[in-house]
Specification:
alpha+beta; Double Stranded RNA Binding Domain; four-stranded antiparallel sheet; 5 helices; 4 strands; elongated
Length: 142
């Protein structure tokens, strides 16, 4: 994965829409378009191999919307009162989301617990049982 090329293609091909935002900001909320919605067609992304692009569609399936033949990733950011900061956050979130979703996870090799670990576990269980046995009355009356 070429992250530099990916970042460039996100900035070049993303469709940015500004709208009014809820949340903090007082009277600013009613006057300024600070919410940022980023729409990105996955076919325009560069820097991903074919396998990474397929994995991207598979893992982001619920977050993707289909517009005709295009597959779009739609993100929005409205946490801050500044349009510029929200735009930077949306770009950063898109890049991070794409990088983590496209990464192929390592295969897990199952391992057995070692003999020492098994013995330690059994010793702990035995000790715990002895502690509980000492709590009981010696005559068994209660």
């Amino acid at each position: 994965m070429d992250t530099f090329l990916l970042r460039q293609s996100i900035h070049a091909f993303a469709e940015v829409i500004f709208s009014r935002s809820g949340g903090p900001g007082g009277q600013n909320v009613n006057k300024l378009n600070t919410k940022v919605t980023l729409r990105l067609a996955l076919e325009n992304l560069e820097g991903l191999s074919g396998a990474e692009a397929a994995r991207l569609e598979e893992t982001l399936g619920s977050r993707l919307s289909h517009s005709g033949e295009k597959v779009l990733l739609v993100l929005s950011s409205s946490e801050e009162r500044s349009q510029k900061v929200n735009l930077e956050r949306a770009y950063a979130r898109a890049e991070a989301l794409i990088c983590t979703a496209a990464r192929i996870p390592k295969k897990r090799r199952p391992t057995k617990p070692s003999k020492a670990v098994r013995e330690r576990r059994l010793r702990t269980k035995h000790h715990h049982g002895e502690v509980k046995a000492r709590r009981r009355s010696p005559t068994g009356e209660e």
